[in-house]
Amino acid sequence: MRSLFWRILASFWLAIALVAGLSILLGHMLNQDAWILSRHPGLHNLPAKWTALYEDQGEGPAQDFLQELKRKYHIDVQVLNDSGEAVIPGTFPPRAAAFEARQQDDTRPLPWRRLTAEYTSPKTSETYLLIYRIPHPELDAWHRESLLWPLSALGIALVVLTLFSLLVTLSITRPLSRLRGAVHDLGQTTYQQNSLAQLANRRDEFGVLANDFNRMGARLQSLISSQRQLLRDVSHELRSPLARLRIALALAERAEPAEREKLWPRLTRECDRLEELISEILALARLDADIGNATAIDLPGLLNHLKAETELSNPEQVVVVEAEPQAQLQGWPNVLERALDNLLRNALRFNPAGQPIELSARTCEEGLRISVRDHGPGVSAEHLSQLGEPFYRAPNQTAPGYGLGLAIAKRAAEKHGGALQFENHPQGGFVASIVVPRELNTP
Prior knowledge:
Blueprint lengths: L3 H28 L1 H7 L6 H12 L1 H15 L2 E5 L13 H10 L8 E9 L6 E9 H11 L1 H40 L9 H4 L4 H50 L2 H30 L8 E3 L1 H15 L5 E5 L5 E3 L1 H18 L6 E7 L3 E8 L30 H11 L3 E6 L5 E8 L6
Parallel strand pairs: 5-7
Antiparallel strand pairs: 1-3, 2-3, 4-6, 7-8, 8-10, 9-10
């Protein structure tokens, strides 16, 4: 992954390195004698040139060399031997030397800068001390000329840093602008997942963020669509019992007292159906609410409790429980009990008398599987994928219900990090299973 963190860090590090390097370079140029001795065109390699000329041609050419240096660069030079005596007259006049001596006890600066350099002749091993006195106007003029290269380097560095900073800034602000637009579209419910497709292909933090945002946007759109569909389905399902109640009330108003007494059971039945439907809708809505922290669930105890409750309310049916001891689950007991109770009631609608309903909890390759199997006619394969949707009922299903039991079980499975799976058993019957992955099932 090309981390944005390292790109920003490298940018600042490069900027600091360039600024520090140029600062050190300018400091050397303006303040250190060694810089002047090595870079000034009149002083560069002067000791070696003068020594070779003096030892090869004598005092006259050596003195003329210094005079020419003074004429061209206004630099005075003295050359002393080991005893401190002048080797040649040099170009520094006695009057200037006397002035310099008087100024040693004065706080006022000298009108020139004094530099010294020692040089040992490779031919005679004689050591010479060269004393340079450069007037400040000459030094300032040379500084102005010598600053051209570092200032050019500084300008180039600033241009490079500006371009690099611009690229880094754009690499941050452009993705942020796209994400801001996507957030705005999501708030207006006009979000398109392909709007961040290019950003999601990046291999840095913005690419990861765009992929997460796409998943979040898809999830939110799915939830919004399901909520809208649920509202449409709820309004449709509520309309039927309300219409029947309205008709029954209208008939009751016009009927004679004897006939009116016959209508009361019908009104009571319609009210019970309406109450049952509202209870199912509220149970489905509560699964999306925060219901506290997950706890360890006693699966064998829960399954045996459901077996006893089912057989008590349906004496003609038999429930067989099979729970492995190692089958454990972290979750919400009340939610899981409601889901399994709905699966059992669904199985009771289709299971023929004399055949047991099998309730099992066992480990599998996926993790934990809790299954409810009946021996009824099953469901056509083309309708299995639609089971679990609110208010959906398979065609030709005559058993009573509103199509919310399986939807509640599906939401409960998702609440536990798993899924609700449906299949027809190879030996006949229908199987509904809550499957929780192993990594989500670790206490």
